Every structure is written in structure tokens, then in C-alpha cells.
Amino acid sequence: MTPSPCRLLSAVVRYGIGLLAVAWLVDQLRFDRLAAVLSDVAPETVVALLAVTGVGLVARFWMWHALINRLGEAPFRTAASTDLIVNFVNQLLPSRLSGRAAAPLVLRSETGMAVGDAVALSGVHTGLYAALYGLGALVGLAVALGYGRLSAGLTVLLALSTALYLAAGTVVLLAGANLTALDRTIDALAALARRLPVAGERIADRVTGLPAMTAASARSFRVLSTDPRAVTSYAAGWAGAMLLAPGARVWLLLGVGGPAGSVAFEPALALPFFLLTAYSVTLLPLTPGGIGVTEATATAAFVAFGVPAEVAAPVVFADRVLGVYLPALGGWYPSARLDVSWSAAE
């Protein structure tokens, strides 16, 4: 069957935007620099880095899988595709949370779930992610403050971003189960819409349908956020993706097989939490995906802990590319074929 001109044009536009986004991301990442860094790393360390990165990716996918399959059934590849697309969008927008605003559309297109369920699942994922990140970063910040090695400016910046993560997680988790409190506002908006000429009544009908959606979202949100099995499973995936994998990568890069020989980081057990704190500036709307700012801040934090700048910079860069930017590039194709209409699965 020959596709209609409108559908063909839509596909061309989506893929065109996707290719432009990939071109920008590739230009920012400088893969020639990554190749130069890894060329100084022992071959067996490179293999270990790739293996750890693969485990971290599976853990990221598991976070979505744990929540999606609490509301329905979907193959693991659906969770993987959802994560890759959301991660790709995150790297194109100034804040990690702003990128997650697209998650309900992604879930709707990838799984076919109801709008209310998609909104609720995205909210729970965002709330749990931010809350866990904030708590982990708080541990890392406490360790850094305990050793008294961070400058005042860097301490303020990391404390602000950590506090924002904690606040965002708390607000999302508390507000998600109380979406029906918007009913009065929605009624007022519908009344205003009816006064509009021509399309007013049609717009009002759409607006008045929102309370049913918010009620459904609130129910699904409460089911997900209060289910011990779903929350525990999600937290396990989060720990693997955000603590164990990055911590192991940086430990390997700082070790004997790293780009500059063995460099000690003390206390070693706090390394995964310290990384969370150092990378927490991705939440601040400074640059798309925190590219550049995150690496500079993390490098400064490592230097404060005694890691030479000439070692810290390539280690942080390699870790970010392997753990964040390369997986993000993997999301460009599924994002280009994404149907962003709410009726996509109907």
C-alpha cells in the first residue's frame, strides 16, 4: 500500500529532525577524543568497560520494565526502546526533567497504554528517579563535605542541584496521587473555552474530559508508587544503572589499566555516590543534556579529591560518553519513527 503524501511528509520531517539532532550530538561529543582516551587504556580494561556499560544499560531498561509490567504486559524491548528515546530527548533539552516531559507520548506510542496510565507511569518514574538520585547525591555531598575538599562555590552548586533533585522527587510523588485536585481548575477552563467563537464548544468538550483522565492517572499513580514489588524492582534497576555501573567504569579508568596508570580515590566505597553528586548539575537548565558543564563540574570535583586534572578530565569524559551519550544516540532511530499523537494507539 502506497503511503499518503501527508504521512510521507511527516516521516521525512521526523527523520530529518532526528538526523539534525544526531549531527549536533555527535559534534558535541568528539568521538575522536574518546578514541584517543581509550587508546591509552589496556585492552582487557576496554572489554571490562564495555561489559559494565552493557550491564548498566540493561539496568536502565529494567527501570521502565518494572513499572510498565505492573500496569500491563510488554516485552523487554519495549522498555528498552522507551528508555533510549527518553534519553535521546534528554540530551537535546536543557534539563533532564524537561526531557522527561515527552515520556507519556513515548509510552503511548510504544505500548498503546491509556493516556492516564502513560501520564501516571511517567510521573512515578520521574518521581522515583529524582528522589533516589537526590538521596544518593546527598550521601556523596556529605562525604565530600566531611573531607572538606570542595571549594565554596562548587559546594553551593552541588548542594543546589542535589536539593533540586530531592525537591523534584518529593513534589512529583506527592502531587501525582492528588491529580483530582485539578477538577475545579479544569471546570473553570472549560467555562472560558465555551465563550470562544466557532471552536469553543469543541475545545470545552476536550477540556471537560480531562477530569476523567486525571482520576485515572491518580489511581494508576497510587498503584505504582505504593506497590512494594514495583518500587523495589525499580530501585534495584536504578542502583545498577546509576551507582554500580558508573562507579565500576570510573574505578576501572582510574585503575592500573586506565589512561594514566593507577590513581587512588579515597574513600573508594563512596565513589559511586560522589559521582552522583558530581553529575547532579544535569538537572540545572544550563546546557542541553548538561553537555560540557557536567564534565567540567565533575572534573573540578575529582581534582578537589586529589585526582590530577590531566587524569580526571579524560576519565569523566569517557564515563559520560559510554554511560550516557552513546546510549542516547541509540535512541535517535526509534524517536524518529515515534508517533507523537495521543491517538497513536487507538
The number of helical segments is: 16
Structural class designation: mainly alpha
Topology, number of strands: 0
Mean pLDDT: 75
Succession of helices and strands: HHHHHHHHHHHHHHHH
Number of structural domains: 1
DSSP helix fraction: over 70%
Shape: globular
The end-to-end distance, rounded to whole angstroms, is 20 Å
**Largest sheet composition:** none
- Proportion of beta-strand residues: under 5%
Low-confidence stretches: 7-15, 207-213, 342-346
Please tell me how large the radius of gyration is.
22 Å
In brief:
The protein is an all-alpha fold. 75% of the residues lie in helices and 0% in strands.
Question: What do you see in this structure?
Answer:
The protein is mostly helical and 346 residues long. It has one domain (13-180, 217-336). Helices cover 75% and strands 0% of the residues. It has 16 helices and no strands. It has helices spanning 5-29, 31-39, 43-71, 76-90, 96-99, 103-111, 115-147, 152-176, 183-193, 200-208, 210-225, 228-254, 271-279, 293-304, 309-329, 332-336. The longest helix is centred in the middle third of the chain and has 33 residues, at 115-147. The protein is globular.
